[in-house]
Amino acid sequence: LTILGIESSCDDTGAAIVRGTAGNARVMSNIVMGQAELHAAFGGVVPEIAARAHAEKVDLAVKQALSEAMVSLSEVDAIAVTAGPGLIGGVLSGVMCAKGIAAALGKPLIGVNHLAGHALTPRLTDGLTYPYLMLLVSGGHCQFLIVRGPDEFTRVGGTIDDAPGEAFDKVARLLALPQPGGPSVEARARDGDPKRFRFPRPLLDREGCDMSYSGLKTAVLRARDEVMTDNTLTAQDQADLCAGFQEAVTAVLAEKTRRALRVYMDLNPGQPMIAVAGGVAANQAIRAALTTVAEEAGAGFTAPPLKLCTDNGAMIAYAGLERFALGETDDMTLQARPRWPLDKKSAPMIGSGK
Ligand code: ATP
Ligand code: FE
């Protein structure tokens, strides 16, 4: 199967060609056009600007994905597109582009849940077999999922407020570091002393796999204000705050993963496998901590290459491939959805009234 995937749910326009079968597919091309510079002045993603940029770039991204893969549109078996969740204007840009191509060529259209794209990435990168435990940790989400199939997800806990990616972004803003905050906070943390500031580890004292990250950024704000003089932070203060914050997030994720793995192992006999995905999975400190958790529990561990952690079209093409292989397609009534939880029955709302 050769699938074109289109992603436009946040601030990256992605288009990619993925070829193969379920559990054995290859990325032929993966074009990601970021918008960081468009949003930089605003300190965050501006939905209207994002939507317009997606509309302007998506055709070019598709063209480049095809030419880099040396695949013509006529060779594509189906067009997969993120149908949600995400910023609705951006999602609409992608869905409209995909519908246009599907209609013009008479090819099947497949609406993909963006989160399923992240959650199925280890099937694409490592050919992981079902079931596995997934920690999906990104800009808008943080949850443990038992993944049993392309459309079968059981949530075993997650954040009750902010996502860690959001916390990284907010902390970067507090410390005058560039957006997206994840990579810039991680880079500064390398020069910092993680022990200087002792930030809270929310909900560690409580049972279960739920997490909370909104208090953490408030703690960083308070610590910053204490060390700031004349409205300026020294480079060392900045680095220490980053290191302390990153260590707190890492400690919470590691301990909660340990617990989720226990839940998973109770339910699923056999060799346990844990995978991480989403933008925050690009963080080296977090990857290292999770590797240790898996080792200690005798579980396997996998994390996608960095470019497949953050938003991209390849994961959408691949998730579409899995649905297509099961004979699931959508029609021109496919709708863009701002919200679309994974653990509910995740087939898109289509004309058939599913
Ligand atoms: P969602 O997938 O929940 O809809 P999203 O698509 O915006 O949200 P992703 O693109 O998966 O999220 O991830 C982006 C987030 O990942 C941002 O918040 C960013 O700061 C964070 N991130 C990226 N790289 C790193 C890193 N090295 N360390 C920590 N966080 C990171
Ligand atoms: Fe994402």
Automatic annotation (TrEMBL):
InterPro entries in UniProt: ATPase_NBD (IPR043129), Gcp-like_dom (IPR000905), KAE1/TsaD (IPR017861), Peptidase_M22_CS (IPR017860), TsaD (IPR022450)
Binding site for substrate: L136, V137, S138, G139, G140, D169, G182, E186, N283
Major enzyme class: transferase
Cofactor requirement: Fe(2+)
SUPFAM superfamilies: Actin-like ATPase domain
Enzyme Commission no: 2.3.1.234
Record GO cellular component, one term: cytoplasm
Catalytic reaction annotation: L-threonylcarbamoyladenylate + adenosine(37) in tRNA = N(6)-L-threonylcarbamoyladenosine(37) in tRNA + AMP + H(+)
Cofactor: record remark: Binds 1 Fe(2+) ion per subunit.
Domain Gcp-like intervals: 27-318
BP GO terms, sorted: tRNA threonylcarbamoyladenosine modification
GO terms for MF: iron ion binding; tRNA N(6)-L-threonylcarbamoyladenine synthase activity
Keywords in alphabetical order: Acyltransferase, Cytoplasm, Iron, Metal-binding, Transferase, tRNA processing
Domain of life from the UniProt record: Bacteria
Binding annotation for Fe cation: H114, H118, D311
UniProt-annotated location(s): Cytoplasm
Similarity-based family: Belongs to the KAE1 / TsaD family.
Function statement: Required for the formation of a threonylcarbamoyl group on adenosine at position 37 (t(6)A37) in tRNAs that read codons beginning with adenine. Is involved in the transfer of the threonylcarbamoyl moiety of threonylcarbamoyl-AMP (TC-AMP) to the N6 group of A37, together with TsaE and TsaB. TsaD likely plays a direct catalytic role in this reaction.
Protein's name according to its UniProt entry: tRNA N6-adenosine threonylcarbamoyltransferase
Organism: Donghicola eburneus
